[in-house]
Fold this sequence. Notes:
- The chain is α/β, with parallel strands linked by helices and 365 residues long.
- The protein has helices at residues 37-41, 96-102, 113-123, 137-146, 153-157, 181-189, 203-208, 227-236, 247-255, 343-354, and strands at residues 2-7, 12-19, 24-31, 49-53, 57-58, 63-64, 77-80, 82-83, 92-94, 106-109, 126-132, 163-165, 171-176, 193-198, 213-216, 242-245, 260-276, 282-293, 303-309, 315-320, 325-328.
- The chain folds into 2 domains: 2-149, 3-Layer(bba) Sandwich (Glucose Oxidase, domain 1); 154-354, Rossmann fold (3-Layer(aba) Sandwich).
- The longest helix has 12 residues, at 343-354.
Amino acid sequence: MKRKLILENGAVFMGTALGAKEDSFGEVVFQTGMTGYQEIMSDPSYAGQIITMTYPLIGNYGINRDDFESMKPALRGVVVKNAAKDPSHHLMRQSLDEWLRAIDVPGITGVDTRMLTRMIREQGAMRGAIVPFEENTTKVLEILKSTKPLAGQVREVSTKTTYANPGYGKRVVLIDYGMKKGILRDLLEQGYDVIVVPYNTTSKEILSYAPDGLVLSNGPGDPADIPEAIEALQDLIGMVPLFGICLGHQLLARACGAGTFKMKFGHRGSNHPVRDLSSGRIAITSQNHGYAIDAASLEQTPFEITHRNVNDDSVEGIRHRHAPAFSVQYHPEASAGPEDAKELFIQFDELMNQHAGRKYYAETN
């Protein structure tokens, strides 16, 4: 069955149907990872987005049971150059097409993803729709141009209830803004007693769990859309060691008065080089974000920049000058080959050791 991708700038890409039959509207972005499509498509940070995979062959090893980053993917669609028709892997349970059908997510294959990616790089991420070939393009464009920007994705993907993952080590509260399972997995591997809480949990409730540390997870969308989360963090900075990842990194900065902005097309891939400013060391990192911290706005806050992106000099890491709090824009739990960023979990553990048993650490927030 023929299908087409229509962008709000009027561009139309023809292809063949993949996955579910439903029409789909969302923000069209591109992902440069050569592998890991299952983890990418199940990442809650893609809530409301149509993912264009730049690697030309997707689905060659199928879908297995274990490599999900969430059990209820929130993406709106998938665009690929070539979807493998005969995948092969000893752990495979489904093909990509079968899985997309099962979760009611449409896709399109046979698209010139190189051209599409170049268009997004030049004009920025934009709204788009995956619809049947027969659909009236003019009517779809009218819908796209009248659609408001995405908002509220964190509320969609965050856990609705608090739950515990018992362990015998330090107690860590993990705030779920759209958490990848990999973050929870890495914390559990350290033997921590992990309590996962919803995005809008109050600071009072978080402190009632007597945590040794607090992890702020990744998540989708604009950090400004969840002021209740920022308000809670303002109370928590200085009260307990904090480690922020991706959206958690942006929320931590905003909690101290810094600003964030929407990037032209964001960082989405598994090979982004990041420089540690103290050591000069370059780490190859996995990233997925469309917003970033405004570097100039950090000058009036108690944060210092610790990491920069080698490609565009954007802020990739910050550290509080007075309180035990730091964060990074990239994903230390995602090991797309190298494990350059795993040491951040060790730093977090050391921070908790240094401040064990203290009730209040910072003289100023």
